[in-house]
Design goal:
The protein has helices at 6-17, 23-30, 34-46, 79-90, 116-127, and strands at residues 66-74, 95-100, 107-113, 133-140. By secondary structure, the chain is of the alpha+beta class. The protein has two domains: 6-46, Arc Repressor Mutant, subunit A (Orthogonal Bundle); 66-140, Alpha-Beta Plaits, CATH 3.30.70. A hairpin with a 6-residue loop joins strand 2 (95-100) and strand 3. The longest helix is centred in the first third of the chain and has 13 residues, at 34-46.
């Protein structure tokens, strides 16, 4: 684990809120000179603490009107079955996140589709035909009062 000090944590919080701010603005915000701030950010990038930068997209403007969390239970509990399932969902653009979890099922997916009909197509014609899938449970997102994913 990387040892972070208070300044590193302030830099990370500031970048998580706005990764596009200038180095000058970031330096002012965290109380460093611009050159010291840039060295810190580059060090955080080199060490892998900062893995990359992302744009936060407006799903509504992109025509994504349906978001759901989907749990998937597999019928075979082998490494090969898990790898095959993971390869299949990695090719599905509707699957925005895939997490291997503990509990009564193996996977939790975050799925985005244009609408209910688009989700039904993915559910039936993509996920539903995978030979490893035993159970599917869908939790439809009705609203997201807090969502701080980058």
């Amino acid at each position: 684990m990387i040892q972070l000090d208070d300044i590193d944590r302030r830099i990370l919080r500031a970048l998580a809120q706005d990764a596009r701010q200038s180095n000058l603005a970031l330096a002012e915000r965290v109380g460093l000179s611009p050159s010291a701030c840039l060295r810190r950010v580059q060090g955080l990038e080199r060490s892998g603490v900062i893995k990359g930068y992302r744009a936060i997209l407006d799903r509504e403007k992109l025509g994504i009107g349906f978001v759901a969390y989907v749990t998937v239970g597999l019928n075979v509990h082998t490494k090969a079955a898990q790898q095959a399932f993971e390869r299949a969902v990695s090719r599905a653009p509707e699957v925005r996140e895939c997490h291997n979890i503990t509990g009564t099922v193996e996977y939790l997916l975050r799925v985005e589709a244009t609408d209910l009909a688009g989700y039904k197509h993915w559910h039936t014609d993509v996920l539903g035909i995978l030979p490893q899938v035993q159970s599917i449970t869908t939790f439809v997102v009705m609203g997201s009062p807090k969502d701080i994913r980058a």
